[in-house]
Amino acid sequence: MIKRIFVEKKEFEVEAKSLTHTFQRILKIEKLESMRILYRYDVEGVADGLFDQIIGTILSEPNVDQVFQGALQIMDDQKIFGISYLPGQYDQHGDSAIQCIQIVSGERALVKVAKIVVLTGALTQNEFDSIKHYMINPVDSQEASLEPFVTLVDEVREPEDIKPLDGFIALNADQLEAFRMDNGFAMTTEDIQFVQNYFNKDEKRNPTITELKVIDTYWSDHCRHTTFLTQIKQVRFQGDDPISQAMKLAYDDYCQTRTELYGENSERPMSLMDLAVIGTKALKKQGRILDLDESEEINACSISIVVDHDGIDEEWLLMFKNETHNHPTEIEPFGGAATCLGGAIRDPLSGRSYVYQAMRVTGAWDPRAAIEDTLPGKLPQRKISTEAAHGYSSYGNQIGLATGQVTEVYDPGFLAKRMEVGAVIAAAPKENVIRERPTPGDVILLVGGRTGRDGCGGATGSSKAHTEESILESGAEVQKGNPVEERKIQRLFRSKKLANLIKRCNDFGAGGVSVAIGELADSLEIDLDKVPKKYRSQRCGYFYYHGAC
Amino acid sequence: MATFITMGHAENLEITPVAIVTDSGRLIMKWRGAEVLNISRAFLETNGAPQFIDVAVESPIEINSSIKTADQGPINDEQFDFINMMTETLKDLNVASQRGMVEMFDSTIGAGTVAMPYGGKNALSPMDGMVAKIPMIHGDTTTCSMMSFGYNPVIAKNSPFLGGMMGVLESLSKLVAMGGDYKKARLSFQEYFERLGKEPVKWGRPFAALLGAHQVQAAMGTPAIGGKDSMSGTFGELTVPPTLISFAVATSHVDAVITSELKSTESLVQLFTLPLDKNGIPELTVVKAVYDIIIKANQEGKILSAKTIGYGGLAEAVAKMAFGNGIGVTLNDRIDPAFLFKPLYGSILVESFEIIEGSTPIGKTNDTGEIVYGSDAITIDELVEVWEAPLRSVYPEKAETTGAVETLSFKATPIVYKKEKQATPQVFIPVFPGTNCEYDSAKAFENAGAKSVTTIFRNQSAHDISHSIDEMAAHIRASQMIMIPGGFSAGDQPNGSGKFIASVFRNPKMMDAVMDLLNNRDGLVLGICNGFQALIKLGLVPNGEICAITEEMPTLTFNTIGRHVSTIPMTRISSKLSPWLANTSVGDIHRMPMSHGEGRFVASDEVLKTLIENGQIATQYVDFNGEATLDGRFNPNGSVFAVEGITSVDGRVLGKMGHSERIGKNLYKNIPGNMDQQIFKAGVNYFK
């Protein structure tokens, strides 16, 4: 038996008031008189007595909320719609309700939550649609049916077995290119030919789709900086103005440094990556950066520092890391920005250091611009900026990370795409961090993280060319972080005893299972059946490695 | 492995062995017993087919050492209007206040923040970067880290090369302005460019930016030891600015930290110019010398405050330094008006009692609260309004609430403990999924002489839940105090903060243990922030017992401003009924770190009347005159009657929104005032 109630704030409804204001003033829907926002709870598997008890403690608060049982009364001049998460998106609201019921009663119920919006005023269908459009982000949500549920049990479809792709190695160049396009791979034409050649010559068999997708993810710009590693054959300066002359001198310096570091006639290719890292290499050779903490394990920038601890000097590691989440924030600002911070934290965290402060630098164009001037296929700057600020702050506030500086830079160029950059700083006593090379027989452990299905293909998603259709097509490609889980790992890794058990550790970011585990050691055997089901098709969480013991 | 798994479970984490390391040189994945992936590592490591490109570097759009980065209107000698130029500068989108956005972010958790994002008694002078003490679970440190960033899209769009140079220099200037040493700086870059495709000219932009950044690294001896790139900033014909953000990090001693708000009304404001040649290219060897002078002056204790110059030139920097404490500046008449509004990107403005060699005198501070230039003067209050207005409709900085309420002073002596004395009383601190103030709370209690016991509430299985409840109930029975710390239990779900915690405490075993502590053992209960929300949702405040919530009871709800608020407002002790407040006096005012989304106390007039009569209103939000107020500038959440904290009738249960535990030496150096209410000490002494 499914029981349904609607819960509405009595007088402290901040959200409905502020949205009414937004629609009247920003969307210029002047006929909108008022709106109500209610939460609809459908509960299955609790007896009547318990249901009455949880209504007044868990589902509502008698001094704040009013409760409507059964159906909602709608007037003639009112319009109604509902919003719920897409199937598979983690819903913390519903999950917490389930847990609270279990805590007070021991009963495991099923709960589904939807947000119900009631609009009063003589709205046209167009106006009604534009309000819906503003409130429902198709990336993670859908319009909820207003009909009663038959069951709250989610239908689970078992995926089919994975078989080799018959005929792949025999495809001709045109067929191969068509195959690449059809599957939405991020890799280039040359790359897929390279892959076909590998399976033809070395493996002498057809690949599975899993293999192609893993390779695609591995080689994506997000995971492997393909752009930054592109080999530069020739450099030309087009002008002869004073600044071009200064650039030429700087270029000569760079070439000189290359010769000093790599020797004359070095085969080492010039690339953006080389130019980005050569400063450190040169200064290191000159003995000018003695505090650099280098290792095979790359989690974050890391330096050795001396820290005063109650008057005694101790050796610590200071780690810092910056991260962008531009594309995800552009299409789903709240989740995209939240995960920007989550991702930045994960790197130094997997380096076994405690993240204690964050910075945020974003780029937008004028958030005061009229909504009707929004480019087709884009969200309004106001919505992106404000919701991203909510997303990033909500993640940081929840995980308990002090944010020390937040700056939004305004430039019309960011209409092309938002800039969402997070940077974090972390520290740990040096004795906490042990780094060793993995050896055969070592076990890889997966730690924490429960987010649902969101986040599939996050890495390749942000490396593909984007056009107007991005919002709809990329729907499933936004990752959602979970600050509550990440904080548990922060606590766990702050323990020296635990940290000392880890030889090497990697975070489970946009690259997912394949990259996170795959990067830990050269030779690995991964048993996907052991990966808890909730991680299998998503890409957030953590893989931590440690030695057999 | 067993130790790892056990320790993980204790932290409420799921831990699963999923793979083993082999020596085959291959990455293998098995699913349903069959290999679905088996590829050679060597192949994966190729990173695909090698890609090749030619690079063509363009000339800058304009060659000029004074390209404006803010919209200030033209400078015309004939009709130069100082006040108009000042206000136009402060209105520029990249100069205007972003405080309404910044204060959505918790800036005090961890009790390690050395400088707040906005400083001064008015909390209006923006810092150039962030500074925090190195985090310690036990003990204290004088070592802090500093981080800053440098990036200006206007400069970068004109010349990505100069954009790269200036990005790095700006990040270093900011470190120096915060009292750091640029020579210790380590950098990390964030590149963000258009999709490069196969066009050499597009590749020339990141190449030029990195070339500029490399030159500064080499000259200053400050390496970029990491970075991240995103090369997808294209949408149709639109492209993002050629972006290279330089993040600079260094450590320092907390005593060396400089904050940005003017501190004296009798000091001199001076400029250290970042030297550029006639083409706008920084002269790097001279830059070093300038930085070294500032570092030396700081070591000699000569610098009171400092700030780098950003988009809006000297005018912007002077105003922002003035806002914090409302200290005005009388600008030197002899300064060319054009110079006041000239872009001096990356230069540093310094306040000192004496002239520091190598600086340009800009003006003197004054006590009239005005920015004065010749015969023109404008008040800081007017300028603040101009500066805060542009983004107010997007990021409101305060709720539009006003009005005065009665400032309460209740005479009472706290209840005295009559049971067996405790040399080291024990406090139980439960940690729920989403709790995040337990480290700070435990440390505050330990520093006050208590023994603290923290327990994680585990909910991975039905067994975990019942086991956690048993464990927590047992700890309560062995403790004298319960402290429910702040955080976002279960992410403030289901739709209400503190509900998850309240559900746990409504479990019969927990309820019995709590009521035994209060009724039979004269124990104390404290709830801060999320803990206060839980206490009020249980009825422990104001009723002193866990009871059913009725329609009439007071509660905490969403802040009137409709968002999270992180600030350090002032609260005043209005009643000493609670033993927790035994070390304060009625009328004491404290600056109190706040960070919450649902801190608005609401109650009916009738309930308020009873609470006032009983002395149960412990603290109120007050203004600079010490008077309770509804003004959104001082009462950050819109609480009725300006209530910040309340107690049970006998005072032994205290709930408050302000984070009394986020205290320590060398914190919040740019916020004047006393912060220590000694509530932890008072709680411990109650049992002695």
| Total count of helical runs of at least 4 residues of chain A | 20
Would you identify the CATH architecture of the largest domain in chain A?
2-Layer Sandwich
Number of domains of chain B: 3
Structural class of chain A comes to: alpha+beta
Tell me which protein chains meet in the greatest interface and how many residues each side has.
Answer: A-B, 206 and 197 residues
Enumerate the spans of chain A where pLDDT stays under 50 for 5 or more consecutive residues.
Answer: 450-478, 535-549
First and last CA, distance of chain B: 45 Å
CATH homology superfamily of the largest domain in chain B: Class I glutamine amidotransferase (GATase) domain
Helix content of chain A: 25-40%
Largest beta sheet: strand ordering of chain A = 3-1-2-5-4-6
Global mean pLDDT of chain A:
86
Major sheet summary line of chain B? 9 strands, mixed
- Measured by DSSP, the beta-strand proportion of chain A falls in 15-25%
Quick structural gist:
By secondary structure, chain A is α+β, with helices and mostly antiparallel strands. Chain A has helices at residues 14-26, 48-59, 92-105, 125-135, 173-182, 189-203, 209-218, 221-224, 226-229, 242-262, 272-285, 326-331, 333-350, 381-399, 458-461, 470-473, 483-493, 496-499, 512-518, 533-536; strands spanning 2-9, 34-44, 65-69, 78-85, 110-120, 141-144, 231-237, 301-309, 312-324, 354-364, 402-410, 419-429, 443-447, 504-508, 524-527, 541-546.
